[in-house]
Write a structure and sequence with these properties.
single chain, seven-stranded mixed beta sheet, 10 helices, SAM-dependent_MTases_sf, alpha/beta, Rossmann fold, Methyltransferase domain-containing protein
Protein backbone atom coordinates (compact mmCIF):
# COMPACT_ATOMS: atom_id res chain seq x y z
CA UNK A 1 0.00 0.00 0.00
CA UNK A 2 1.48 3.35 -1.01
CA UNK A 3 1.65 6.34 1.40
CA UNK A 4 -1.33 8.13 -0.15
CA UNK A 5 -3.53 5.07 0.34
CA UNK A 6 -2.40 4.73 3.93
CA UNK A 7 -3.13 8.36 4.67
CA UNK A 8 -6.57 7.92 3.09
CA UNK A 9 -7.15 5.02 5.47
CA UNK A 10 -6.20 7.18 8.45
CA UNK A 11 -8.59 9.89 7.26
CA UNK A 12 -11.40 7.34 6.92
CA UNK A 13 -10.77 6.01 10.44
CA UNK A 14 -10.96 9.48 11.97
CA UNK A 15 -14.05 10.33 9.95
CA UNK A 16 -15.67 7.42 11.83
CA UNK A 17 -14.34 8.58 15.18
CA UNK A 18 -15.13 12.29 14.74
CA UNK A 19 -18.62 12.55 16.34
CA UNK A 20 -17.52 11.25 19.75
CA UNK A 21 -13.81 12.01 19.57
CA UNK A 22 -12.52 13.69 22.74
CA UNK A 23 -16.08 14.36 23.89
CA UNK A 24 -16.27 11.94 26.84
CA UNK A 25 -15.51 12.37 30.52
CA UNK A 26 -12.02 10.82 30.41
CA UNK A 27 -9.37 13.60 30.39
CA UNK A 28 -7.06 12.51 27.60
CA UNK A 29 -6.42 14.52 24.45
CA UNK A 30 -7.18 17.88 26.05
CA UNK A 31 -4.63 17.74 28.88
CA UNK A 32 -2.04 16.40 26.43
CA UNK A 33 -2.80 19.19 23.98
CA UNK A 34 -2.64 21.88 26.68
CA UNK A 35 0.67 20.60 27.99
CA UNK A 36 2.16 20.39 24.50
CA UNK A 37 1.25 24.02 23.79
CA UNK A 38 2.65 25.07 27.17
CA UNK A 39 5.99 23.38 26.42
CA UNK A 40 6.14 24.70 22.85
CA UNK A 41 5.62 28.19 24.30
CA UNK A 42 4.07 30.26 21.51
CA UNK A 43 3.90 34.00 22.10
CA UNK A 44 1.02 36.48 21.85
CA UNK A 45 0.68 37.59 18.24
CA UNK A 46 2.27 34.43 16.81
CA UNK A 47 1.10 32.64 13.68
CA UNK A 48 0.57 29.07 14.88
CA UNK A 49 -0.12 25.80 13.09
CA UNK A 50 -1.82 22.73 14.60
CA UNK A 51 -1.18 19.61 12.47
CA UNK A 52 -3.64 16.75 12.83
CA UNK A 53 -5.85 19.03 14.88
CA UNK A 54 -8.74 16.61 15.47
CA UNK A 55 -11.42 18.20 17.64
CA UNK A 56 -9.06 20.94 18.85
CA UNK A 57 -7.23 19.59 21.90
CA UNK A 58 -4.20 21.71 20.99
CA UNK A 59 -5.96 24.19 18.68
CA UNK A 60 -7.86 26.00 21.41
CA UNK A 61 -4.90 26.28 23.81
CA UNK A 62 -2.91 27.64 20.84
CA UNK A 63 -5.61 30.22 20.16
CA UNK A 64 -5.51 31.27 23.80
CA UNK A 65 -1.71 31.51 23.79
CA UNK A 66 -1.40 33.64 20.63
CA UNK A 67 -4.35 35.83 21.60
CA UNK A 68 -6.48 38.07 19.43
CA UNK A 69 -3.40 39.49 17.70
CA UNK A 70 -2.26 36.04 16.58
CA UNK A 71 -3.57 33.52 14.09
CA UNK A 72 -4.14 29.76 14.29
CA UNK A 73 -4.35 27.41 11.31
CA UNK A 74 -5.64 23.91 12.11
CA UNK A 75 -5.07 21.14 9.56
CA UNK A 76 -6.56 17.63 9.56
CA UNK A 77 -6.83 14.85 6.99
CA UNK A 78 -10.36 14.03 8.13
CA UNK A 79 -13.17 16.17 6.66
CA UNK A 80 -15.47 15.14 9.52
CA UNK A 81 -12.95 16.20 12.17
CA UNK A 82 -12.44 19.51 10.39
CA UNK A 83 -16.18 20.13 10.24
CA UNK A 84 -16.63 19.56 13.98
CA UNK A 85 -13.58 21.70 14.78
CA UNK A 86 -14.79 24.54 12.57
CA UNK A 87 -18.21 24.48 14.21
CA UNK A 88 -16.76 24.58 17.72
CA UNK A 89 -14.35 27.37 16.86
CA UNK A 90 -17.26 29.40 15.53
CA UNK A 91 -19.33 28.68 18.64
CA UNK A 92 -16.43 29.95 20.78
CA UNK A 93 -16.03 33.02 18.63
CA UNK A 94 -12.45 32.13 17.72
CA UNK A 95 -11.05 33.01 14.27
CA UNK A 96 -9.40 29.62 13.69
CA UNK A 97 -8.67 28.77 10.07
CA UNK A 98 -9.50 25.08 9.52
CA UNK A 99 -7.99 23.29 6.52
CA UNK A 100 -8.68 19.75 5.27
CA UNK A 101 -5.60 17.98 3.94
CA UNK A 102 -1.91 17.55 4.63
CA UNK A 103 0.44 20.07 6.18
CA UNK A 104 3.46 20.31 3.91
CA UNK A 105 5.54 22.87 2.00
CA UNK A 106 3.37 22.03 -1.02
CA UNK A 107 0.17 23.13 0.74
CA UNK A 108 1.25 25.81 3.23
CA UNK A 109 3.74 28.71 3.15
CA UNK A 110 7.34 27.79 3.91
CA UNK A 111 8.48 29.74 6.96
CA UNK A 112 4.94 30.97 7.41
CA UNK A 113 4.50 30.07 11.07
CA UNK A 114 6.09 31.07 14.36
CA UNK A 115 5.02 27.84 16.09
CA UNK A 116 3.88 24.38 15.02
CA UNK A 117 2.40 21.62 17.18
CA UNK A 118 1.35 18.10 16.27
CA UNK A 119 -0.25 16.15 19.10
CA UNK A 120 -0.36 12.34 18.83
CA UNK A 121 -0.19 12.47 15.04
CA UNK A 122 3.20 11.67 13.57
CA UNK A 123 3.14 7.92 14.28
CA UNK A 124 0.18 7.58 11.91
CA UNK A 125 2.32 8.81 9.02
CA UNK A 126 3.95 6.17 6.79
CA UNK A 127 6.93 8.47 6.14
CA UNK A 128 7.49 10.28 9.46
CA UNK A 129 11.00 11.58 8.70
CA UNK A 130 10.02 13.05 5.34
CA UNK A 131 6.83 14.53 6.77
CA UNK A 132 8.57 16.03 9.79
CA UNK A 133 11.26 17.61 7.60
CA UNK A 134 8.46 19.35 5.74
CA UNK A 135 6.90 20.54 9.00
CA UNK A 136 10.20 22.01 10.17
CA UNK A 137 10.38 24.04 6.96
CA UNK A 138 6.92 25.47 7.62
CA UNK A 139 8.32 27.23 10.70
CA UNK A 140 10.34 30.42 10.37
CA UNK A 141 13.96 30.45 11.59
CA UNK A 142 13.79 30.76 15.37
CA UNK A 143 10.27 29.36 15.42
CA UNK A 144 9.17 26.58 17.76
CA UNK A 145 8.09 22.99 17.04
CA UNK A 146 6.30 20.69 19.48
CA UNK A 147 5.31 17.03 19.14
CA UNK A 148 3.55 14.66 21.48
CA UNK A 149 3.84 10.90 21.08
CA UNK A 150 3.54 8.02 23.54
CA UNK A 151 6.03 6.61 25.97
CA UNK A 152 5.38 3.41 27.93
CA UNK A 153 2.09 2.45 29.54
CA UNK A 154 2.01 0.68 32.89
CA UNK A 155 2.27 -3.12 32.91
CA UNK A 156 -1.46 -3.82 33.31
CA UNK A 157 -2.46 -1.43 30.53
CA UNK A 158 0.20 -2.90 28.25
CA UNK A 159 -1.09 -6.41 28.94
CA UNK A 160 -4.63 -5.35 28.04
CA UNK A 161 -3.48 -3.78 24.78
CA UNK A 162 -1.50 -6.93 23.98
CA UNK A 163 -4.80 -8.84 23.82
CA UNK A 164 -5.99 -6.49 21.07
CA UNK A 165 -2.64 -6.33 19.29
CA UNK A 166 -2.80 -10.09 18.76
CA UNK A 167 -5.62 -9.38 16.28
CA UNK A 168 -3.92 -6.41 14.57
CA UNK A 169 -3.72 -6.48 10.77
CA UNK A 170 -0.28 -6.32 9.23
CA UNK A 171 1.16 -2.86 8.50
CA UNK A 172 -1.33 -1.19 10.82
CA UNK A 173 -0.49 2.48 11.48
CA UNK A 174 -1.29 3.12 15.11
CA UNK A 175 0.19 4.48 18.33
CA UNK A 176 0.45 0.90 19.61
CA UNK A 177 2.27 -0.44 16.53
CA UNK A 178 4.28 2.06 14.49
CA UNK A 179 4.08 4.52 17.40
CA UNK A 180 6.46 2.49 19.55
CA UNK A 181 9.14 1.49 17.09
CA UNK A 182 11.85 3.22 15.09
CA UNK A 183 12.06 6.93 15.89
CA UNK A 184 9.23 6.63 18.43
CA UNK A 185 11.05 4.10 20.62
CA UNK A 186 12.53 6.49 23.19
CA UNK A 187 13.15 10.10 24.11
CA UNK A 188 16.64 9.72 22.64
CA UNK A 189 15.35 8.49 19.29
CA UNK A 190 12.72 11.25 19.16
CA UNK A 191 15.39 13.87 19.79
CA UNK A 192 17.53 12.33 17.06
CA UNK A 193 14.59 12.40 14.65
CA UNK A 194 14.00 16.13 15.21
CA UNK A 195 17.69 16.88 14.75
CA UNK A 196 17.89 14.78 11.57
CA UNK A 197 14.92 16.71 10.20
CA UNK A 198 16.65 20.06 10.71
CA UNK A 199 15.65 21.18 14.20
CA UNK A 200 17.94 22.24 17.04
CA UNK A 201 17.74 22.78 20.79
CA UNK A 202 15.70 19.60 21.14
CA UNK A 203 14.20 18.46 24.43
CA UNK A 204 12.36 15.14 24.69
CA UNK A 205 10.95 13.81 27.94
CA UNK A 206 8.08 11.73 29.31
CA UNK A 207 5.36 12.86 31.71
CA UNK A 208 2.74 10.58 33.32
CA UNK A 209 -0.98 10.88 32.65
CA UNK A 210 -3.41 8.83 34.76
CA UNK A 211 -6.73 7.55 33.45
CA UNK A 212 -9.38 6.44 35.97
CA UNK A 213 -12.07 3.98 34.90
CA UNK A 214 -14.40 1.61 36.76
CA UNK A 215 -13.86 -1.58 34.76
CA UNK A 216 -12.85 -3.24 31.49
CA UNK A 217 -16.20 -2.42 29.86
CA UNK A 218 -15.52 1.28 30.46
CA UNK A 219 -12.00 0.83 29.06
CA UNK A 220 -13.47 -0.68 25.91
CA UNK A 221 -16.06 2.08 25.54
CA UNK A 222 -13.39 4.73 25.92
CA UNK A 223 -10.82 3.13 23.60
CA UNK A 224 -13.52 2.72 20.95
CA UNK A 225 -13.41 6.54 20.64
CA UNK A 226 -9.64 6.45 19.99
CA UNK A 227 -7.46 5.11 17.20
CA UNK A 228 -7.66 1.76 19.03
CA UNK A 229 -11.10 1.38 17.45
CA UNK A 230 -9.38 -0.18 14.44
CA UNK A 231 -7.95 -2.90 16.71
CA UNK A 232 -11.36 -3.64 18.20
CA UNK A 233 -12.74 -3.92 14.67
CA UNK A 234 -10.24 -6.71 13.97
CA UNK A 235 -11.57 -8.91 16.81
CA UNK A 236 -14.07 -11.49 15.45
CA UNK A 237 -17.48 -11.28 17.13
CA UNK A 238 -17.23 -14.86 18.34
CA UNK A 239 -13.94 -14.12 20.09
CA UNK A 240 -14.96 -10.83 21.71
CA UNK A 241 -16.22 -12.31 25.03
CA UNK A 242 -12.98 -14.22 25.53
CA UNK A 243 -10.91 -11.16 24.61
CA UNK A 244 -12.87 -9.04 27.09
CA UNK A 245 -12.32 -11.59 29.85
CA UNK A 246 -8.56 -11.55 29.20
CA UNK A 247 -8.53 -7.73 29.14
CA UNK A 248 -10.45 -7.54 32.43
CA UNK A 249 -7.97 -9.90 34.04
CA UNK A 250 -5.02 -7.93 32.63
CA UNK A 251 -6.31 -4.61 33.96
CA UNK A 252 -7.13 -5.84 37.46
CA UNK A 253 -3.66 -5.17 38.97
CA UNK A 254 -4.28 -1.45 38.37
CA UNK A 255 -7.34 -1.39 40.63
CA UNK A 256 -6.82 1.04 43.47
CA UNK A 257 -8.10 1.20 47.04
CA UNK A 258 -11.04 3.27 45.76
CA UNK A 259 -12.07 0.29 43.56
CA UNK A 260 -11.24 2.24 40.39
CA UNK A 261 -8.80 1.18 37.70
CA UNK A 262 -5.95 3.70 37.68
CA UNK A 263 -4.01 3.37 34.44
CA UNK A 264 -0.85 5.33 33.74
CA UNK A 265 0.39 6.39 30.32
CA UNK A 266 3.70 8.17 29.85
CA UNK A 267 3.24 10.96 27.30
CA UNK A 268 6.36 11.95 25.38
CA UNK A 269 6.78 15.65 24.64
CA UNK A 270 9.47 16.67 22.17
CA UNK A 271 10.11 20.35 21.49
CA UNK A 272 12.70 22.12 19.35
CA UNK A 273 13.57 25.26 17.41
CA UNK A 274 14.16 25.76 13.72
CA UNK A 275 17.70 27.21 13.40
Amino acid sequence: MDPSQRRAGVAALFDQLAPGYDQGTVPWFRPIGRRLVELTAPHPGDRALDVGAGRGAATFPLASAVGPGGHVTAVDLSPAMALHLRDEAESRGLPVEVVVGEASPQTLPVGGFDALVASLVLFFDPQPDETLTGWVHLVRPGGRIGLSTFGPTDAAWSAAEAVLLAYAPQQLLDARTTGRTGPFTSTTSMAALLEACGASGVDSHDEPLEVTLPDADAWRAWTMTLGLRQLWAAVPDAELPGAMARIASALEPDRGEDDQLRLTQQVRYTTATRP
